Each structure stands twice: as structure tokens, then as C-alpha cells.
Amino acid sequence: IQHTTRIMGTLFETDMMDIIFVSVLTFWLIFVYFVKNYDYWRHRGVPHVPAWFPLGSFPQLVFGRVHHTVVIDQAYKQFSNERFFGIIEVRTPILVIKDPDLIRDILSKNFNHFTDRCIPEMNSKFEYLNRNLFTKKGNEWKEMRIKLTPAYTICKMKMMFFLVKTCSDQLKKAIEDKVEACSVVNMNDIVLRFIMDLIGSCAFGIDVNTLFNRDSYFYRITKNILRRDGPHLLKSYLVKSFPIFHNVSLFNMIKPE
Q1: Which residues, other chains included, contact 207 with Cβ-Cβ below 8 Å and sequence gap of 6+?
Q2: CA torsion, ordered 240, 245, 246, 247, to nearest 10 deg
Q3: Residue 150 confidence (pLDDT)
């Protein structure tokens, strides 16, 4: 019995050592995977926002505490005397351009080198959502851009002014109604509804009227796409950390409906 006990104890110790070794090795590999790009901008002499393992330059973004535009604005002011600066989004190096001349070169003179966005295409299950200028790349992007250009002529834009004014008048009335009722105005909600009315009128030619229709289906679907709850933030972080998850159904950011 004692012999058997010693054998079992030895096996247990061996198993524990294996588990500890595998755990330490796994953590070390994950650590290296994340931090290998954290010195990317320092090695190139580019002013940058320091990155923190495993959240990158802006940990508060991962937790949804502030909006993306707020932290970029803070970094912009931090490097007020620089023409550009670098950041790390989770583990991806990104260069933020501030100088108007550099921006002009990128968007005009050397645009052929900067046509692609960093937004990956969605799961093939949502192929129809990939048919836009934000996800298309290379020649496909150029072909789609050529097709859409006629929709944004000066004449077409002027034709939208009436629709924009109509939606703006509705926004004004919606806020006035809230004020008269002495109720709290949720500006995030009301501005989102205003934007939905604009998109519905100008892009689709329909009056979705989300400002006054609180149960608008159009609004509910959009709200679902733009949601920022805990599960969505976790999925977003994992997809940015491990791009291979992007095509895994479990990590879809948009519900099938």
C-alpha cells in the first residue's frame, strides 16, 4: 500500500509539474505574442502612446469606458507639436497623421498605396454586408468607388438638403417636446435616432421616423449593430487580439436577424 501510495504521489507531482510548465509556457507565448509589437514605434523613432499588456495604448477602450474619438483627441493634444504619432490598438501598430500636407499626400498624390482599410471582411455568412467601401480592398474597392461616385455629385448632394432640413426640423421638435414635458433628454439616444432618420431618408428614400416612433424596427436593428455591452466588448477584444477568430461564428459581432 505504501509503495502504491508513493507511486500515486510521484505521478501526482509529475502531473502538477506538467500542468505548471504548460501554464507558464502558454502565458509566456501569449505575452510574447502581444508585446512583440509594443516597441514598434520606439525602434523607428516615432513619438507614441505607450502600450500596456495586454490592452495596448488605450486600456479604457477595451472596457468601453470612453469613446474611441475621446482617447484619440487626448492623444492628438498630447502630441500637439508633432506631425504624426503612433499608437498600439491591442497589438496592432497604427500611425495617426496630423500634418495637413501628409494627409493630402496620402489621400491624393499617393493614394494608390493607401486604398485599403484595416477593417476585415465579415464572416461569409454575412457576405451581403461586405459589399461596401469600408471592407472592400484593391481593385474591388476601386470598381465600387467608380460606381458610387455619380451618387455624390454636387447636384445630388444639393437634392438632399431638403431631406436634411426636414430631419433637422423633426429633431428640433423632438427636443422641444422633451423640454416642454420637463423630462431628461438622453442625447446619445436622440442623436442616434436623428442619424437613423437621415440615413433612411437620404440613402434609402424611406421615412423611418425613429425620433417619434420609439419602437422603430430600423432603430432596433441599428442599436443591435452598435451595441457596446460586455459580451460585445469581449468579442471585439478577442477578434482584435486573434484575427483568426474573425471568421468563427461564435465571434460574430452582428446577430443573424
Answers
A1: 197, 200, 201
A2: 170
A3: 81
